[in-house]
Batch of 4 targets.
Target 1
Amino acid sequence: MNTLDLTPLYRSSIGFDRLAGLLDSALSSDAVSPNYPPYNIEALEDNHYAITLAVAGFTDQELDIKVEKGVLSIRGEKASNEQHNYLHQGIANRSFERKFNLDDHVEVVDASLDNGLLTISLVKEIPEAMKPKTIAINKASKVIEHQSASKSEAKGDKAA
């Protein structure tokens, strides 16, 4: 597989290091990280999102959710190491860690575990300063005449 060198991007841009880091990790993480547990990301409505992970066999005490520096981390750590005599083991009960990069204004609102599905609710809250504003156009513009001091003095001299 060909690799993509992002070094020129780092050399010629300022302030885009987070974007370059995201691209770099996205291109390299798929080859290294396993696809466990499977997950969905869905847009529920404007600025509302949900991430759902299939975590069958995990309890809420075995799951840990953290947000740090714009990265949502979900970690599952199996508490018991009971020995079973499986004839077939198709349900993975291994520990995992999944990370999701969040946009600057995306906040985690809620998390729930139901029927083996962990659902994390997210909301993108755009600050008022960044929301688009409508600027009213003044319909009537006033023309202000500028009179120089010498013209007003001349008019004053004629009146006297």
Target 2
Amino acid sequence: MLIQDYPPQEPPTETLLFLHGRLMVLAEGIEGEEHRHGDDPSQSLIVYPAPEPGGPVLIFMHGGGWTNGYKEEMAFLAPVLNAAGFTLVSNSYRLAPRHVFPANADDAAEAVARTWRLAERYGYDRDAIFIGGHSAGGHLAGLLAVTSDWQAARGLPGDVIKGCLPISGTFDFTPGCGLSMRPRFLGPEGRFNEVKASPLFRLGETAPPFLIAHGTEDFPHLMVQAKKFAMVLRARGLAAETVEVPDATHGTVLLMAAETDKPWLPAATHWMRAVLGRRA
């Protein structure tokens, strides 16, 4: 899909505009197949299949403060993941302020369902689906991973997500979480979406393993949240590992994710194989 085919987005900050530009340059010439699962153009995904069938899948969602971003930006991850035997799926979701929670989470859940159903077409293993994302995408990935109220309605097994890999995600929106302002995707106050949208407060008795990453120069409140969320997961007997990317900011930690000599990519591919019990 062309960027101009999407609904208008909020004017991006200079930081977001720079990151978008870098990502689109890195994504140039990388082709996948698009599928829609709703009337809004943002309700769509792109599949970048691995060359060999039977491998795992990573659904990875873009960031952008819940108000910006495009699935096409994540294409830069496809070559390195495909080379490692992983299919990449990148999905968009409806954005604030026009759409508020839980619209974005519903779209992410539909993308998981569509990925599960496309397995026969592309030959990947639908019983080896992982989910991740950067920033706002990392938040949505974490929320889907810890909640169990969306799978059955879509005909999915409860354990459809085998592991979660958020990068610089937000796990807590309640007062004192460190955010400088209340994100607009939460909608009007009084709906208690701060709690409903917070993976930290949606944890049940079970959750898939987590690999939680951030840069050492990331936003301070997100580094604190990552450490706290990992601690809470472990305290509940759930599996959580962390990756800190040296000298990476909130934006460059994503740009480094496709670099084989940086920590995230080798850690992520090894970790996903280990979760599945496959050879590293």
Target 3
Amino acid sequence: MQRLADFLDGIARVTASIVRWLALVMVLVQFAIVVGRYVFGVNSIAAQESVLYMHAALFMLGAGYTLLVDKHVRVDVFYAKASDATRRRIDVFGHLILLIPSMLALAYWSWPSVRNSWKILEGPISVGGIEAVFLMKSLIPAFCVLVLLQSLSLLIRLMLPVTSSEKAAA
């Protein structure tokens, strides 16, 4: 089971190592847009939309890694002062009752829109924009799959027995 969890973690790490570069590219493109508009009087709707696409991809595809490194949003009202055993129970509850059903529902309810978008190869958001809204909509099921895989990995780790080194670290 440990090897499966490590493999699933690897998917999140590889995905993050690729999409993290979108942050740099996004800043450079946005800088070029501003310089082009205000210095040279040139504007490109496609370039503006590319920033939107990169932003969407960065956050949607990076969500699984965010969950892996425990940097996701958490309500710490009870969690912060809870014992390790209680935290494990809260995490299991959160994955099984909240996160996994939410991701499955989102994937289920968004799939018809994604499928239809691919069927018609849905065009740009704005006139003159990138003719690939279907690709951006595909980020929704990709997001769901990546978060579900990472949730499964974390659940596997939560179900593994606590080692003495983990007890000592706590």
Target 4
Amino acid sequence: MFLDTKKAQRYLDRALARGGDFAELFEEEKWTCSASMLNGKLEGANSGLRWGLSIRIFDGLRTVYGYTNEQEEEKILTVIDQLTAAIGRKRQAECPAIQEQIIPDQHAPEIPVQSVTLAQRRALMQRANDALLNYDPVIKKAIVNLADEDQTVIIASSDGRLVRDNRQRTRLRMQAVAMDGDRMQNSAKAPGAHAGYEFYDQIDVEAMARDAARTAKVMLNADECPSGEMTVVIDNGFGGVIFHEACGHSLEATSVAYGNSVFCGKLGQKVASELVNAVDDGTIPHAWGSNNIDDEGQATRRNLLIENGVLKGYLIDPLNARRMGMEATGSARRQDYTFEPTSRMTNTFLLNGTSTFEEIIADTPLGLYAKRLGGGSVNPVTGDFNFAVLEAYMIRDGKLAEPVRGATLIGNGAEILFRIDKIADNGSREQGMCGSKSGSIPTDVGQPTIRVTHMTVGGKGGKLK
């Protein structure tokens, strides 16, 4: 890392030389390490270090963007000159004296990821592997992947600020494959945090591995799910992926600013059941999707999105803030220096309600309990979605009944929000990677258990009886 206030001053002055009204620099150094294990055998381990610098210049609502991994000053200035030539106007703005701002670190690791040896990594993975394989003889394959990242960024901008941030993350993915003849089912758990290896002393790795194995075993012997419109109870934790995908992306300025969202122009209007309260909070200490600052150097925030069913806010980056005439919300994110930042989610979840899980099940005569969701597809413009259900059970006479497999949830995000009639008090979050315009980034999804009065369920088990 080499940017300081003097270098940043020179580069930003040069960036504004031919007409831009705002410029920013994003320097990144990222160390990554990954390892994989199959049935107790270490299959591979790799680590690497990457550096790069990006430059972005605003000219009203127009931007030019470039990056380089060359550290020589003359080569960096050449990239800047190429960008300013694309603007080609007289100087509009001056860059004030750059001052470094110290940002408090809410996510400092106790055991830095780069201090952990390969032997320690292997021992952690072996614990997960053994818990998977020892759960039941039907578990024939255990796949464990471990990924660590140590990223340091320096962001300087022509409003006179320079900020630094260190981000260390670790994630362990434990996958169980159950097999019986030609039948096969798999399930996985993948906890992660914006933290060091102290994280693995704070969670029960073996219990999570056994839960993945349990799901694979149960689903191996489950009958096909029936199809039709029915009441659906969606469990807490990763169940929040429906809100993230079908609603959260439609609340990002990336969609809203261009009129490509069902929530355009609806601030202050009712967009959900009055039970629904939703936030995006990038400030939660050590949460997977949290940062001290966003990728344009603004402090992250807890942004209220929906309150008692009323739309209260969007997620807005600085460029789209200009487009929308609104304030930026600390939501600018990018995968790395090669991606131009835009508005993205951090940790997005529904808040607790007042019901209990047991009350919701007992009050449901017939329906589907979607305990764990998987991948799916969403149209961000319309909010139409379909999601695979990795673990599901029928609800009959207010009780959990037989497990069913192959269920798919089909619906529209904006419509589903109005159909939520019960929310439990058991909110939790789980980790994922979110792909969008500015690359793949870590995000938390979450919710309490919710009940949707009616939803289309796809399955091969015939009509619901």
